[in-house]
Structure formats: C-alpha cells, structure tokens
Known about the structure:
- This protein is mainly β.
- Helix content is 11%, strand content 38%.
- It contains five helices and 25 strands.
- A seven-stranded mixed beta sheet has the order 1-23-20-25-18-16-17. It has a seven-stranded mixed beta sheet with strand order 3-2-4-11-6-9-15.
Amino acid sequence: xxxxxxxxxxxxxxxxxPCKTAFIDAHTPGSDQKENFTIIGGGVSESSDQHxxxxxxxxxxxxxxxxxxxxxxxxxxxxxAEAFFxxxxxxxxxxxxxGDAGEVVLEEGDIFNIPTGIFRGFENIGTDxxxxxxxxxxxDAGGGVMWAPQVIEDAADHGLVLGEDGKLYDTKRQQKLPExxxxxxxxxxxxxxxRPEPTTADVLPNHVARYWDLMALSDKEPTTxxxxxxxxxxxxxxxVDFITRGSATEAKNAAKFPTVLMPMRGHWKVTWDGGAATLxxxxxxxxxxxxxxxxxxxxTGEASLYRIVATGDPAGLTWQG
Length: 321
C-alpha cells in the first residue's frame, strides 16, 4: 500500500471537521458550545451536518468532543460500550438519573470505560479548550443515543425536537416533524427505575485507568487497558492497548481487523512494506487489516499511544465476567 493510499486513512488533528449541531442539547445553555467530531464510522450524531472522516467499518466507532471551559455534555446513554480518553484538558464525568450518583475527574491521558446502562455526562473543568477522544462499540453504534427525559424537555424549550427517526428538527428554523414521524418518547418511569445508580466507589476500580499508572505498566511491554484480560476487564467488541517508548518495537505485526492508532504524547513513525507515515498527538490512523506494520516513537521525549482493534465479539453491554 502506497503512502498516498494510507494518507486517506489518516485524520490529522488540524483537519478535524467540527459539528456544533450534532445533538439535541445544541441550543441548551451550558451545552451550546460543544463541537462533535466523527472520525471513524457513522457515529451517533443526530444532525445531517455531521462530517464523517472515514466511513470504513471497523467494528467500532471513533469520535471526539471538543468543549470550552464550563461547557457540558448532557446526560445520555448508548446501547453499546463507550470509552473515553482525555487528549487535552481536565474533565469531570458524572452519571446517574440526575447526574449525581457518582463522578470522577480525569486528567490528560486517563481513560474511562463507562459502565453501560447508566446515564452519563461530562464537562470541561479546565481553563482552556479541551478534547476527549471516544470509542463506541459496534459499526452502527447500537442505533443512536438515549437521553435522560429532562434533556429532551430542556431541548424542546430551546427549539430542538428529536423525532422517532433519530433526527433533529429545529423549530427556530421553522422545521417541523415530517408527516408520520412522532417526537422521540420520553423513557418511562418503569424503564428509568431499572437503571442502576452506581457510586463513585463502585465505578472507579473497574472502569478508570490513570495515565501515569499505564506509563509504568507499559515500560517493557504494551498493556491491554480494555479487554477480557485487561486492566479494565471487559469484552465490548474491541480491545484497547497502551504503548510507550519502552514497549514499542520495530517488529512488524498485522491484525485480521483494521487497527486504529491514536498518539497521546510524542510523534510516532508507522512503517509498513511500501512506506511510512508520522503521527502526532490528536491524529488518528486506520491501518488496514492484514497489513504488517510497526509503530515506534520518531523523536526523543515522552511518548505514548493508544491502539484499538476489534475483537469480533458482539458489541453489547459491558461484560460481567
């Protein structure tokens, strides 16, 4: 494969296309400054304005959220697993019916494999524009987003209505639900009562991995962060590995599914028979299936990288093993 062909599978941080109308809370005060990015896969955006960088199926989706300080992403859930790592800034994640069951603060490089079946939200509590990178299970991401009822009600007060077809309609722009399309129904009290409300103590040990702990663990060998035998034990349909300067190797390896490389710190050189490419923090590269390649730091200094590969397992709820 030529470098030109590979370049079509690299999304540079500086080339990311933001969407400010991706979700139902796009007009809600406190959430109306969000920028959403769909990097790999169709994602779960509710807006036709969302740009998809790489549409090739991988068995999971890669996206991102960029937010200025004090901007919040509203309480929601997905039908499949969702994991985030912080690329830039300081973020507070919170969860539960009203967002008060528990919370955790993540720093740059930390990763959170959020328990499924609970409403979750997040906000940038840093002092500058922040960015978090997201991994969502499944090629179709399970059919969209489930919003806490109050989010849908608040959005309607500010002109946005979500249809049962999963699309947004902006009444401020004189948009109406099409004939035969009803508004997205609110989740019933019975459905809400079935949702667990795990505390911070319940969630932290099995769902959060800290960057500097991963750096230490990956000093000699790559660390499986999310996986059946990972630091965070789960089978969400994908596996996440963490690689540092000490655990990178020139040996070329291939996977039967596409491999996604996402540098956290430092510049990384990806080499395959026929070419090479260099990645910087915030870049995302999709390596084709069965393409033998190596990835090593190309400069001195701190170097770390997340690698994501599908496992072929069903993209479903968090595994309870």
